[in-house]
Amino acid sequence: MGEVTGQPKYLHVANELRRAIRAGVYPVGGELPSTARLTENYGVSTTVVRAAVRELRDEGLVRGQPGKAVYVTAEPDGDPAANDSVEERLRQLSDTVHAALREFDARLTALEGRAAGPAD
């Protein structure tokens, strides 16, 4: 999950998800990865992910559909990264890219497994 920032883990995850939404990784109308996928991507507990998603929900950025998914409903206002140092912004971008790559790798692996089909 990167270096220690001194902020609670759920806020770090919420900030990363905000940045990903702003960057179009998770566009308005699209869905966030599952809780299980987010726990894996960020190396945190289910409780941390749920608190991060609750933070975004309270801000009106996402809406949960019970039994389905959490959908992005709006983009964050402003850019909280504007006051960050260049090093911090690069670290955050790196974390976001690594999380997206891990998700892509997991999806690709699942697709390759389905394409291979049952062994004869």
UniProtKB/TrEMBL annotation:
Residues 7-75 form the HTH gntR-type domain. It comes from the Bacteria. InterPro entries: Bact_HTH_transcr_reg (IPR050679), Tscrpt_reg_HTH_GntR (IPR000524). This is Winged helix-turn-helix transcriptional regulator. Keywords: DNA-binding, Transcription, Transcription regulation. It holds the Pfam family GntR. It comes from Pseudonocardia oceani.
